[in-house]
Here is the input.
Amino acid sequence: MSMPRQERALEVAAAAGAEALLATQVSTVTWLTGYAPPIETGPNPWAAAPLALLAGDGPPVVVVSEDEEAAARGLGCEVVSYSGYGLGPIETTKHAARALRTALDGRTRLATETGTLPVAFADGLALVDVTDKLSLARAVKDGDELERLRRAIHVCDAGQAEARRRAAAGTTELEAWAAVRAAMEQAAGGRFPLLADFISGPRTAGVEGPPGARPLAEGDLLIADLVPRIDGYWGDSCATLCVGSASPSAWRAHTTVHERLERLLEACRPGVRSGELDAIAREGLRYPHHSGHGIGTSYHEEPRIVPDWETVLEPGMVLALEPAWYGEQEGVRLEWVVLVTEDGCQLLSQHELQL
Amino acid sequence: MSMPRQERALEVAAAAGAEALLATQVSTVTWLTGYAPPIETGPNPWAAAPLALLAGDGPPVVVVSEDEEAAARGLGCEVVSYSGYGLGPIETTKHAARALRTALDGRTRLATETGTLPVAFADGLALVDVTDKLSLARAVKDGDELERLRRAIHVCDAGQAEARRRAAAGTTELEAWAAVRAAMEQAAGGRFPLLADFISGPRTAGVEGPPGARPLAEGDLLIADLVPRIDGYWGDSCATLCVGSASPSAWRAHTTVHERLERLLEACRPGVRSGELDAIAREGLRYPHHSGHGIGTSYHEEPRIVPDWETVLEPGMVLALEPAWYGEQEGVRLEWVVLVTEDGCQLLSQHELQL
Here is the structure.
């Protein structure tokens, strides 16, 4: 029995007049198959990026190097593999292209993501790009996806709690960061990819950035935006903490941003356009970025919460909501993740937001 | 004035009858331009992978989203950028393809890496695949590359020293690991991509793996293989430590592996084929993997040190040498990085190897 998201993927392919869907973005491969390839160290020099094929008559087929085969098995998919890293000559592209031909089994009319399909694999194929349609099809989550997202958000909660424990005068950003990531790894039971902003003091006015050698000082704000990928699904979370007592302007900004976030939770329900949420978020605030975004196998995905965006909320969508305020010398951003339900939304994040 | 590696790249393109070289692997882009894109969180959902174009009549041209533009500037390259993440509609593939056309400026006969060039960018281009030739061209390092490699190896040294301090009974792999990475981040001044094996006890017999919840116990071996990417270049290093007193079999294995590594350092000089090094490394040992490899903008690259490999060592090549031994319940691997000089080699790694 195929999952609802696989049905939606097949509809996208059928609407494009294709015989099958060929997923080429890592995030779409994970979405279709559950297989979460390693990403932390960039492209594998000895393997092509994984591909996934879905046709109406069987389970998804994953095309990976034999080094990834064990990880890709046991997910209800077929696996077609090609030779991986070994002691002899290696011809990755040739072997991967051949494995794809095996998986295609004579099919040539494909709906695919042409921005990430290597030209070396495309000979003789008739391709229709469905990147944008897949992006929308991925917005509503299945039950097993929600379970993975909850696990990822639990890891965020652990990191945010540790950030609160470590935000002390004299500690450098990098020292606090190392403790935060260690706490998240403890919660996850191992390593995982982690996108993050971890900035303090005047750096918070700059919206984003990695931790550096700067020591925290009394009165500093610290923005901790923690975005781990656990088992292929991204969590997201942001809090703004203060080392000691906050300035009056920081208090005011924090109060307004927090209020906007609460207001977003009230407004978030099926039928609302994401652009309407964006307008609610920005009332009385100023920030250069989105007011939020879907999360799933990408850390930013539909529905985008930006001005005038027309995506209509549906039950099963998972949104990260992140109103913010940035001044000359300090910034505040707060982010919680919610699940859109039949008649409103449910808060998935458990981390605290107080200054 | 172009760098020696750019001259070699142009020779590869000319030999293929091409008007220009189009680099599409992240590692080749970094090699040609110095630009090291972020890789730790997988493909950017709002940007195509970076491209670099080199023709005879000017500096390399980097094609990136405007979100990466600042990082790509100041490297002696031209930058052609396309719109990045923003509040309005985003059409990454279309805009990136258009930016590439701008960079190509009418050129269509290109030497390239077809295994990583998106099909959406290839319309109307006449492509010759030169992946293998570029791989060989990258093996000899320029002076600025050596400087970056030395910095990456310095970060390895810091991690290995910390592993030695933290390998104590009762500490879990994950706890020791967090301290090791924190020490490396201190040495580097920030975050960086990090490939690693960090395994203890019977897990060392399994060659590779990430740190887990296993507590270290008296008599355990710990394999710490630390491979950071600093500013686009990968360091590499491996030591095998013992918590307390090692078993006689571990001592014997360690002594033999260490001896082989010393022997490799004596043998390593211009004119030697890498397959000869491999044979020297394996004498009296058994392991399923290579005996070493080049490092640079990829963590594994030419010269591969595997049986019968014909690549001939040249001054300026940088090799990671890693003989090993794996038994039923324990394993030992030692790895140092050397620079091939005019008449031998120079040890770049500074970390200790004793058990």
